[in-house]
Amino acid sequence: MGEKVAFIGLGVMGYPMAGHLASAGHAVTVYNRTGAKAKKWVGQHGGGSGASPREAASGADFVFACVGNDNDVRAVLLGENGALAGMKRGAVLVDHTTASAGVAREVHAAARQSGVDFVDAPVSGGQAGAENGALTVMCGGGEAAYARAEPVIAAYAQRCRLMGGPGSGQLTKMVNQICIAGVVQGLAEGLHFAKAVGLDGRAVIDVISKGAAQSWQMENRYQTMLDGKFEFGFAVEWMRKDLAIILEQGRASGTQLPLTALVDQFYAEIMAMGGARWDTSSLLARLEEHKPKR
Predict the structure, then answer these.
(1) Average pLDDT of the chain to the nearest whole number
(2) Domain spans in the chain, listed from the N-terminal domain onward
């Protein structure tokens, strides 16, 4: 039996995620700040749309959100027209936004006062993962809330796990982004070096991708990096938003994150080059830009 579901935020991630929920047999009502996109989604998948997050969430068993940042989370979930104001007691609210652990705990407290269960559940896998229903989902919250939400999340997830209490999903996503930042910088430097010393970059990757250097970034980004193509993927400005959250959390917890801070500076340089919407693999473009003239 399908559930009555609301999905708030139809960006490059939310649009296909909501589509997978509809395909799984759930009755989906959507909300998007740009109403034309909600109308397009309904035309493609059926279901309905709400004029506000509160209206979309009214009567839903599960409400999912995937928006931009902490302030966006507050705007669509809290307040008079937020989703929580329309949710019935006993429903489950799941936030897939990559945001701070602090805002996750803030929403958790507000949800508890409304008799609603809350799970912070940022995702990894990018647009392709969302479109293919193959996301990795890191969750924070109570065990009972997670147990109810996980079978519904399965519509677009290949891996989903409860990491701990409220905010733990967001903290886990921070670890994910720290690791990605370092891996992409290393890959960019490796490819830059290979070209500089006269090696065939594709041949190099064919060999080293079968050994200890292998990574998702290597498998999925080396060809476009070598071709100098960056107008796609996970945007630099989005990564900088995530890294800002991480660096703030690091300061609060007394954690040293020197490589993360350095890569954030490199991304700032890429934005100054006009690459705010380039894929994060554009770290190679920065190295090519700085290549000494001969």
Answers:
(1) 97
(2) 4-165, 171-289
